[in-house]
Amino acid sequence: MRTRIKICGITSPGDAQSAAQHGADAIGLVFYAPSPRCVTAEQAREIARATPPFVSRVALFVNPSADEVRAVLATCRVDLLQFHGEEGPVFCGQFGVPYLKTLRVRKGADLLESLSPYGDAAGWLLDTYRPDFYGGTGEAFDWDVIPARLARPVVLSGGLTAANVGEAIRRTRPWAVDVSSGVEARKGVKDADKIAAFIQGVRNADV
What we know:
Layout: E1 4-7, H1 13-21, E2 26-31, H2 41-50, E3 56-61, H3 66-75, E4 80-83, H4 89-92, E5 99-105, H5 111-115, E6 123-128, E7 154-156, H6 165-172, E8 176-179, E9 184-186, E10 189-190, H7 192-206
Parallel strand pairs: 1-2, 1-8, 2-3, 3-4, 4-5, 5-6, 6-7, 7-8
Antiparallel strand pairs: 9-10
Helix pairs in contact: 1-2, 2-3, 6-7
């Protein structure tokens, strides 16, 4: 199986095109004001327009209001929503767009119990837990806590880089991997060489 790849925290049309040209399957657009990778709906529209066909556009939110989500959907065409906070399943499923639900994995957490209410999600994204951060921490969690079989496709995130993504894939066999800080020149700006190296690391692990 080919592991899919999402490059998250895209803030410019050029970075979106670079991710696509190197083989990314999806880009992530962050709509969370505290993040250095946050974009406005208008910026996201320009990035989405620059994204080639067959590359999915994912809109990431953290505990938004329904109106905030609808405002983005009215301005920018996206293919998938990603809810990275404490949003409930009813909230996540109300927009008529497929969604990913994120679980920030902490020590001792019961992943099955936490994720089972989100059975209608397109997939479950597992990220590193830090109380003061919602993603983009650059830190990995203990991959051994991931059950061998989960009811929805798993997207692995948290501290992934070109150096460790191969091991991560071989150990967890996720449907997809999601990277942001691991392919950056600086916060909010991607590095084309790091993107290329990361994607090559994924491809090597798939052999």
